[in-house]
Design goal:
Layout lengths: L1 H10 L2 H25 L4 H24 L6 H29 L4 H24 L3
Length: 132
């Protein structure tokens, strides 16, 4: 079972999506930490700024390099942004839950949200935004 999962991961677009997503998450987290920890903005406002910036990077890299789907860019970008919005909402809920309700702080909430948002967005983007 593990070998089948590893084979799927390596052969699918998920490996490149993971690599691009890692860079996008670094951009997202770097901007978030700067705005939240250094500039003193709220966690949700910082999240609201960092997500769109990293989303633009992610869309362009996935469209041109990973999925190689540059046709229908307007449709794909709208679809991608819809998925990003849903991921943003999921992330915001996790940040609020972990940061405010569990009182572990906004940065911890952001870190906890990343794997959930990644898997959620990969699934939707591979099935909708970058399908053939």
């Amino acid at each position: 079972m593990f070998s089948n999962l590893l084979k799927y991961f390596v052969e699918s677009k998920m490996l490149a999506y993971f690599f691009i997503g890692g860079i996008a998450a670094s951009i997202d987290l770097g901007i978030f930490v700067f705005l939240y920890e250094l500039a003193g903005l709220t966690a949700v406002i910082s999240h609201s700024v960092s997500v769109p910036i990293s989303a633009i990077f992610s869309f362009l890299c996935n469209a041109f390099f990973n999925f190689r789907k540059t046709d229908l860019l307007l449709f794909r970008s709208i679809s991608f942004l819809t998925v990003v919005t849903l991921g943003y909402l999921l992330g915001a809920i996790i940040i609020i839950f972990v940061g405010d309700i569990l009182q572990l702080g906004g940065t911890i909430g952001k870190l906890v949200s990343l794997p959930f948002v990644f898997l959620f967005q990969f699934y939707l983007n591979s099935k909708v935004s970058f399908r053939d």
